[in-house]
Amino acid sequence: MLEGIFDEVIYYIHQGGFAMWPLVISTFVLWYAIGYRFYILRRGNPRSVRILVKRYMSGYDRNPTGVIDTAVLRAVRIAKQTGEHLRAFLEDDFSQFIEEINKYSILVRIIVLIAPLIGLLGTVNGMIEMFDSLAEQTFYSQSGGIARGIAKALFTTQLGLVVAVPGMIVGRILEKKQYTLVRELDQIKDIICSGTFEDAI
């Protein structure tokens, strides 16, 4: 069964022409990047930032499970060890979180952008082959012809959209999640520096 599916995939790629391989590679790279970002963008404890800060300040020592947990724990440790220039130390330490949660975001955008263009390139190539067949009157050639040109045009367009559309939707969801985490990281710095966590419920 698996061998049959593999053969079908290879046939599909072969029918689409040279543009199919970049699209197939882009698919694997895109979903690797998306999977990595899903893993990295875990928030952790669902409690509010203010409550988390208060709990860690009071000696809560449970291992962090996400970005916000880890950031709060590190911020509390820095606050206990540092007197002056606390915000500067936090900014420096949190830059690692910002770099990590930004990872592969540009790659996802680039693949989503170029996948339809690669598909369009395959479409143009298929149309050229189709018109060449019309000129040479090789309508039913086994190695080419109109059918081959149409197959190239449609398969590459289809795969380009299949790569781009889900990637764009999931990418937007992850970007929104990333934006929320960045705001919460800023909130952690503000709470730690102002000492307002004492008012947490």
Provide the structure class.
Answer: mainly alpha
From the N-terminal CA to the C-terminal CA, the straight-line distance is 58 Å
β-strand amount: under 5%
> What's the helix-strand series?
HHHHHHH
What is the domain tally? 1
Instruction: Report the average pLDDT across residues.
Output: 83
Q: Total number of β-strand segments?
A: 0
Shape: elongated
Helical percent range? over 70%
Note the total helix count. Answer: 7
What is Rg?
26 Å
Largest sheet: none
- Low-confidence segments, given as residue ranges, are none
Keywords: Cell membrane, Membrane, Protein transport, Transmembrane, Transmembrane helix, Transport
GO biological process, one term: protein import
Protein name: MotA/TolQ/ExbB proton channel domain-containing protein
Family: Belongs to the exbB/tolQ family.
Entry keywords:
201 residues; mainly alpha; 7 helices
Condensed summary:
By secondary structure, the protein is mostly helical. It is 79% helix and 0% strand. It has one domain.
